[in-house]
Amino acid sequence: MEEQTQRHRPGSPVRSGIPEHGRIPKYYAVKARIAELLDVLGEGGTLPTERDLAERYEVSRETVRQALRELLLEGRLRRSGRGTVVAGPKLEQPLSLASYTEGVRRQGRRPGRHLIGLEQFPCPPDLAPGIGAEPGEPVWHLERVLLADDERVGLESTYIRVARAPRLNSDFQPDSSFYGYLRDSLGISFGEADEKLETVLATPREALLIGTPPALPMLLIHRFSRDQDGRPLERVRSLYRGDRFSFTTRLHAE
């Protein structure tokens, strides 16, 4: 395949990733042409087979395979049964004290959660300061798979003192909003939080629970929250699929 150049489109990477000398790998040129095909097929459209794409673009199946791998990692494609289909836009989750439920609903999607476990254990010393607990004090660990329209998109672990939510195991519906439960049932509101966002690979267990390949990049958020009175409240570890999520925030001049 001969070398190609592409014009920059608003919202795309500068020069669409093409080096200044204009020479690009063969797989990348194929990837660009498949990306154009995705726009034609539309969300949910089924992609032709690797063999058909190789014949169409006159390249090897391995070249096509490499292009498809990148499009899958970027969230442009998703596996569906035996085929590959065009994925919808990524979920945009705000970096704010809004709950996951609120963020997903704002985009017209149906949020959900699947309970993995709710257990009580003595608080280890390294966790205690972040949630306002004494070492050895009982704490809850709530672990749930995050869903959007029944699609598994993340994994969330929440730690909170049993004293702050003593009836969590009996009064809380695991598929509902934890923040809503704290607010509506316990009168606890959130005041502020510290968050750290980083890119990681899922562990084999996490990948199995979320239903993704271990090599798929994940977005990991650590959050330490405080209540309306400034007291430490919870620690949350949220793992999101990098191919299905992006995060947004609004910045203000100091």
What does this structure look like?
A hairpin with a 2-residue loop joins strand 1 and strand 2. This protein has 254 residues and is α+β, with helices and mostly antiparallel strands. The N terminus is likely disordered. The strands form 3 sheets. A 6-stranded antiparallel β-sheet has the order 4-5-6-9-8-7. It has a two-stranded antiparallel ribbon with strand order 1-2. A two-stranded parallel ribbon has the order 3-10. The protein is elongated and about 65 Å long.
What order do the helices and strands come in, and which of them pair?
Layout: H1 26-41, H2 50-57, H3 61-73, E1 77-80, E2 83-86, E3 91-94, H4 100-105, E4 111-122, H5 128-131, E5 138-148, E6 151-161, H6 168-171, H7 178-186, E7 190-201, H8 204-210, E8 217-227, E9 232-241, E10 245-248
Parallel strand pairs: 3-10
Antiparallel strand pairs: 1-2, 4-5, 5-6, 6-9, 7-8, 8-9
Helix pairs in contact: 1-3, 2-3
